Amino acid sequence: MAQKIDVLFVHPRASEKIYQSLSNELSAIEPPIWAGLLANGVRNKGYSVAIIDAEAEGLNLDDTVKGIGAYKPRLVVFVVYGQQPSASTQNMYGVSLLCSALKDAYPEHKVLLVGGHVSALPKRTLTEERADFVAQGEGLYTIEGLMQGDMEDAAHLKKVPGLWYREGEEPVFTFSSQVISQDNLSRELPGMAWDLLPMRKYRAHNWHCFGHVNKRQSYAALYTSLGCPFSCSFCCINAPFGRSSFRYWDPRFMIKEFDTLRNRYGVKNIKIADEMFVLKEAHFMELCRMLVERNYGFNIWAYARIDTVRPAYLDLLKKAGVSWLALGIESGSKHVRDGVSKGRFGRSDIFEVVGRIKDAGINVIGNYIFGLPDDTYETMQETLDMALELNCEMANFYVAMAYPGSKLYDMAIRKGWKLPEGWLGYSQYAYETLPLPTEYLSGGEVLGFRDEAWQTYFTDPRYLNSVERRFGFETLEHIREMTKYTLKRKYAVAVPSKLRTRG
Q: Which parts of 109-204 fold into alpha helices (H)?
């Protein structure tokens, strides 16, 4: 193990609490993308770096603390990041435990927290956690600034962009850090530090490998762009980035990342984690053309929107290895969708786009949210009915959460709505999960409906028949086993019998 390094990036472990029994086999184990990007960016500036991925390595709290101590780092950076941007808040549970344990064992180590959640609530994070510093923003320039001087010197700290620190007991903010520009993106964040990650430990989502559910490794996730130009009220992506900061790596640069994954690490299953991959045609289509030329046989999934998918894109996406597109359909009620600024599309648009994607041989993940502010039992049933009728190859059923950094969070604070008591309550799958209430339903009622709707969908005969035709008997049996998992919920309220979800 390397000794006395400059910066150690740490991804804490908390999957058993966040996903309950799903963490054993069904959930993915993803590389910590922001840790990998920041590590390579900091290394590129001449500093020595390492990464501890406690989740992938299966390290308990004590072993993680010992591992951190062995490196004797000048700075320990906890990267608060989830499998998608809104999921960073739930990871604060593991961060908080590890931060306290580290400070008990090595109080001299300087600790910085960086990520979407801490950017949304920087002052609160610094007040509540035993960290020395919090980065508000993307973090790269904050880390670089800290490393350029004495971290005990207040005069130096005042010069560090995007930094929260303490003067005595009082939280102090320096000044806003600039966002990494489009022109400087490849130079400042020159890809992932794959060599610092345990690449053989990562595992794809079970549905990503329908048709070959026993071959979920090897697996990688990466960005080809950063940020999002949209402003859906339930999303917190704008907390670290800002709405106007959509940037993308040059396709000629990105193809080298794919070359590395395939040729050096033998990766086949890939998640393109961009908040919206199918968006800027000149970017994603050029990258797809390069992937087609290489014919790597990737199994890729990526995000799109109903209003960004064009028929002309689909053939090239399929040939490039894009096997799955995830669509944010959110609600079967246009009134509810309009209430959260979710696109200008109607029911017919949804069915037309989903049909075209399927006809192109690409599988669809329909993402739905129960408990948006205007939802009632009736509109949530509309959403489930639409999901059943669309019959996508995969469906994610989420509950609306007031994630810090989102407009829903601001609304919840303003209206005094009950929020989770701890960060685990923001997980979709934890025992402590507590959704946002609607104007008509409690969070517990929303959660009860979601869990029953999930069971209804994945036991629906039409869905099961289509899965067997598309992916085979082995995948069918896998789904039947999947529906035997039952999540324990603290707040779920059973759906009234007269309103039982129907298949």
A: 116-120, 122-128, 140-147, 154-157, 185-188
Tokens 């810090």, located at residue: 404
Identify whether residues 334 and 229 lie together within a single domain.
yes
pLDDT single digits (tens) 132-144: 999 999 999 999 9
The total of structural domains in the chain comes to: 2
d(CA 436, CA 424): 14
pLDDT the model gives residue 292: 98
179 falls within a domain: no
Per residue in 310-340, pLDDT (tens digit) is 999 999 999 999 999 999 887 777 767 665 4
CATH number, domain of 146, equals 3.40.50.280
Dihedral sign for Cα atoms in the order 88, 90, 91, 95: positive
Are residue 141 and residue 290 in the same domain, yes or no?
Answer: no
Q: What is the pLDDT of residues 456-484, one digit of tens each?
A: 999 999 999 999 999 999 999 999 999 98
Alpha-helical regions (H) of 152-280: 154-157, 185-188, 238-241, 251-263
Q: Based on the number of CB atoms within 10 Å of its own CB, is 442 exposed (0-12), middle (13-18) or buried (19 or more)?
A: middle
Please state the pTM of the whole predicted model: 0.92
DSSP-based helix, strand, coil % in the chain, nearest 5: 45, 15, 40
Under a CB-based contact definition with an 8 Å cutoff, are residues 53 and 197 in contact?
yes
